[in-house]
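This section describes the prediction task in plain terms. A model, or a person checking by hand, is given the sequence of a single protein chain and must write out its three-dimensional structure as a string of tokens. No templates, partner chains or ligands are provided. The sample shown here is typical of the held-out split.
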Amino acid sequence: MLRFYCAHEMPFQISAPADSLAPFLIPNSLDDGSGAHALSQYLEQLALAEAEGFDAVYLPRSAGGAVSMLSDPFAVAALAAARTSRIGIAVGEIALGLLDPVDAAQRVAMLDMISGGRAEAGITFGSGAAFWAMTARPGRARLQFAEAAALFLQSLREAGPRRFEGEYFMQRHLNPWPKASDGLPCFVSGPGCPETRKAAEMHGLDYLPDADDPERKGSMVHVNVFVGDADVLTPHLEQARAVGATTPNYQIPPGYLTAQQYRATLTKLARDPLMFTGNADDVTGALRTLIEVRRPTALVIHPHVGSMPHDMACANIRAVAQILPALKSATPAFV
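The expected answer:
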């Protein structure tokens, strides 16, 4: 069954300096204290997504900086859980190449308890910008990620106490509390690199690749959707691009990719993410085509972009929700 997620990156509402090299380098002296008000509005938008029929919300962890409030997505997810009662609460981009996997698993389990069994977890290797922001060593990160993923999943899924011994992690008494619900949904996200896809397959997890490659079949797909005139969206999209702009050297730190992957990634960075705009019929038709080509099990829809005001975001969530029945009726038999 095709599921529909309402994603939200919860950006800070600021203007980026013209010479910004990466979101985590934008001076925090530009924080004008408006974040609390914006967060309250973002949570209202997530509650609206539940009322309008989305299956889950998706909160991607940020590497830090002005691009997103989700450097601690679990705190925000707990607030979202308190404002909703049915919808799934998914925390994505949990960078196990950078974080303590047992601590991450305990946070997921705690969110699962708070939400009454509605938590979902998306793990990832970690973006290049995240390695710079957290001063981590990218050269060994892939091996560390493989081991961390195994430890994370054992912490969530297997009864303790038990022992875990690895090259990077050692747990004499692996016995996290609370215990997560049996069958808690987990998936892997990433830009489509073979190593990350292989890790997902090894653990039997769904894989959420970027949506800008129409030939790449993925089980979950990210899309940006605005039902309306694209010209109205342009200034908010430009603000998001300015705040989120990251030069290639910060996206791809030394040792992060092979030479071949580096060249392919430079080409990919020059392309925009998949964006669907237009009237309801146009957007519905384009998304139906995407579903037929990509064969996803989940569509992760981003209805809020950059500096989009609250009323505009709510109107777009309602407009997107209106086309969900048409998309569900067009769902191919393979899902």
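For orientation: The two ends are 5 Å apart (CA to CA).
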